Amino acid sequence: MQNYLNDVRTYNTRRAWPRQGKCALLVVDMQNYFLLMASPIVDRVLLLLETCRSKKIKIIFTRHGHRDTEGLCPCYGYGRLVPVSCGEFYIMDILDWKG
Fold first, then answer.
1. pLDDT (tens place) for every residue of the chain, 99 residues total
2. Does the CA dihedral 45-23-29-13 come out positive or negative?
3. H or E element: which one contains 28?
4. Which pTM value belongs to this model?
5. In this protein, which residues make up the domain named Isochorismatase-like (predicted)?
């Protein structure tokens, strides 16, 4: 895997010039449930959020959960379902998603 990442390194950087009012940052499923899995990228997400906020770029957070988990396959996604009634359903506090 490491060799592959080195091979594509030159293609792995994108320069973007987002324009206020013409774009938004979409943050998908950065919920408490995925904190352990997402921990390697949280710092980068925080940097993106800070940059977008400083440029007044709109930020949209999404989250995924289930109101009724009965009858659904527990092996869906990361290993189990995320009921909307539990704390794991909410966006990670560290992202300051209300800010």
1. 567 677 777 777 777 777 788 899 999 999 998 888 899 999 999 999 998 999 889 999 998 877 766 665 555 455 567 777 788 888 998 898 775
2. negative
3. strand 24-28
4. 0.69
5. 23-67
